[in-house]
Design a protein that fits this description.
By secondary structure, the protein is of the alpha+beta class. 28% of the residues lie in helices and 29% in strands.
């Protein structure tokens, strides 16, 4: 069935006949002459659903749901859709630009709240550091900007991680940034183990993931249990390099900023402490331990040496005891 000029009355969901497609569903939105999209899910229940524009409705598409529409209207770069049913009746399609290309997401009010947690990021400087310099790896694509943080950035190749703190040419702390897809790819390919080994060689290091841990168990192309076990095994093998899951990219940036600031302060304190210990005056050598009088008397009596039962043991008897026991 090809696209026609008539207005569509229903919202239609069908199975995508393209076997190799990662978007298994087709959506038919009754706006104007009709908009056809490929989608990853049948409804945005727990998270936003990625969609992609399709020019024609395939004749062999199997319809799985057809629902009457109460209203369908465009508002700016969004399409508001209200269906004639009691539950899951309101949703929105949003057209946006991400990573240099146009993208479409299907969302509800609930998934929008989940994607944008109701938290405000504090503006206070991290760990009291007024002039934190964060070095961004030169190979990092679409890096954190830290534009609203009290930090400066510069580009440089890093031996480990994507964001680091450098002092006297040495990388003192580093954070490896990953999306969930990148985490899964590097974990299944074995690349993550090499990255963690490099990070573990640093004084301070961590991995930050721009996603909730719960999304691991919604993966489709790989078994969630395999990924969860792999993450746990990495944490056991490299306990000094935590893998931290943050809800959003913004929170991942905030965590990175504060981790690097805290690491910078901790390393400075350690340096001061080491210098203070080295500057302490050397203690004088301790005198040799003196034998107990009772032990010397018992030794002297056993050898027929006259010694008083009380009072101070004569020095010559003490010296004889020490010489007999190899003490100087």
């Amino acid at each position: 069935m090809r696209k026609t000029g008539r207005v569509l009355d229903d919202f239609v969901i069908a199975r995508n006949p393209e076997d190799e497609s990662t978007l298994p569903y087709l959506l038919r939105i009754p706006l104007g002459e009709g908009i056809i999209l490929k989608a990853k899910e049948m409804w945005p229940r727990t998270s936003k659903v990625y969609c992609h524009r399709v020019e024609e409705w395939p004749e062999e598409a199997e319809v799985v749901e057809r629902t009457k529409v109460r209203s369908c209207s465009r508002r700016g770069a969004a399409i508001d859709l209200v269906l004639e049913r009691g539950r899951e009746n309101r949703s929105q399609f949003v057209v946006t630009n991400a990573r240099g290309r146009q993208m479409i997401f299907w969302q509800t009010a609930r998934t929008t709240r989940q994607a944008k947690p109701a938290v405000s990021v504090p503006g206070a400087r991290a760990s009291g550091v007024p002039d934190l310099e964060i070095v961004i790896d030169s190979h990092e694509r679409y890096p954190f900007t830290f534009a609203d943080r009290q930090a400066t950035t510069r580009r440089q190749g890093l031996p480990a991680g994507d964001y680091g703190v450098i002092e006297d040419g040495n990388l003192l702390a580093s954070v490896e940034r990953k999306s969930l897809a990148d985490l899964v790819s590097s974990l299944t390919s074995g690349k993550l183990k090499y990255q963690l080994a490099d990070l573990a060689a640093l004084p301070r290091a961590a991995v930050v993931v721009e996603e909730r841990y719960s999304q691991v168990f919604k993966l489709e192309r790989v078994r969630p249990a395999v990924v969860a076990d792999g993450i746990a095994e990495c944490q056991v093998r490299w306990p000094a390099v935590p893998i931290v899951f943050c809800d959003t990219r913004k929170l991942a940036q905030e965590w990175t900023y504060r981790f690097l600031a805290a690491a910078s302060v901790a390393l400075a304190e350690e340096t001061v402490g080491e210098e203070a210990v080295r500057s302490l005056a050397a203690a004088p050598a301790l005198p040799p331990a003196q034998p107990a009088p009772a032990e010397v008397r018992a030794w002297a009596v056993a050898r027929g040496i006259e010694v008083s039962a009380k009072g101070r043991v004569p020095a010559k008897i003490v010296d004889a005891f020490r010489a007999a026991h190899g003490h100087r």
